[in-house]
Amino acid sequence: MKRVSESLSGLIVLPLLALSPHGHAQDVRRGGLLYENHCNECHEHHVHQRGKSHLHTRGEVWKYVETWQKQLNLGWSGDDVADVVFYLNERYYRFPAQGE
What we know:
The chain is an all-alpha fold. 56% of the residues lie in helices and 0% in strands.
């Protein structure tokens, strides 16, 4: 019976782990807070409208967020970047995960 419960727990946990390349489960709420605290001053929601955007993939969003956090000397970890990218994608872009 223990094997069945271990298998079931794996089935439940795996879908919950939308992992970043750094192995961190992405947190849309945390990403939103980081974005609002550090990016929202210059970026209002209209800059993310798909028709006007020069970003076309999740990878491009990642590169953009990573570049700007370095420019602003925010010192974000890979997990921080992943959370902000996850937030932006969930809120505005809806790009599929790579390989989809």
